[in-house]
Amino acid sequence: VDLLLSIGTWTGLSIENVRLGRQSRRLAVLEERERIGMDLHDGIIQQAGTPQEIYDQPANTFVAHFIGTPRMNFVEAKAGADSTLVLAGDVVIRGIEFPDATPNRKLTLGFRPDNCVISSTEGIPVNVESTEYVGNSRYLHGKYGDEEIIVRVDPSEAVERGASIRIVPQADSVHLFDASGIRIQAD
């Protein structure tokens, strides 16, 4: 806390308490032009950089979940053959390049709600539980197994509560995390 207060004083950042689940965490509220950004988890700074750098390249699943509204989606996966990921239920996601693609390596696939598309034939099956209209977008809130999934669609998209859809994360926008939650860097 003293470190955050010192940084806040030094950089002019404001400090806010943020309540997430059962834990309170302190967060330095960032201005776009600032060079420093951070998340504290268990008293440890998880990542520093500009807000855009942190959003685009989160260091781990904690940062990825914390930065961005709505939050990033996460799905457990295993490395498959030929740049594929295999999800529960033998769902296969193709075309995602990543280093050390050792077959059956446990991974977490992360993707933002605006970085996926609805497909009629392939992808992650999602049961839509609710929809949220926000002007120029609509968010579909659903489930893939026990995982909560959020997808941004055009407001004219005819998807209603109770629908079953398939989504495909855009390969150039996904994030992969290892079993410990650390982001895997692309080659």
Helicity level:
10-25%
The strands making up the biggest β-sheet line up spatially as 7-6-5-8-14
Number of helices: 3
- The global form is globular
> Between the first and last Cα atoms, what is the distance in angstroms?
37 Å
Average per-residue pLDDT, rounded, comes to 80
Question: How do the helices and strands follow one another from N- to C-terminus?
Answer: HEEEEHHEEEEEEEEEE
Rg, Cα atoms, Å: 18 Å
| Largest sheet entry | 5 strands, antiparallel
> Structural class, judged by helices and strands?
mainly beta
Ranges where pLDDT stays below 50 over 5 or more residues in a row are 1-30
Number of strands: 14
- How big a fraction of the residues is strand? 35-45%
Descriptive report:
Strands 7-6-5-8-14 form a five-stranded antiparallel β-sheet. The model is unreliable at 1-30 (pLDDT under 50). With 187 residues, it is mainly beta. The N and C termini lie far apart (37 Å). Strand 11 (138-144) and strand 12 form a beta hairpin. It contains three helices and 14 strands.
Write the layout of secondary structure elements.
Blueprint: H1 2-11, E1 14-20, E2 23-29, E3 40-41, E4 44-45, H2 51-56, H3 61-66, E5 73-79, E6 84-87, E7 91-94, E8 106-111, E9 116-119, E10 124-133, E11 138-144, E12 147-153, E13 164-169, E14 175-177
Antiparallel strand pairs: 1-2, 3-4, 5-6, 5-8, 6-7, 8-14, 9-13, 10-11, 10-13, 11-12
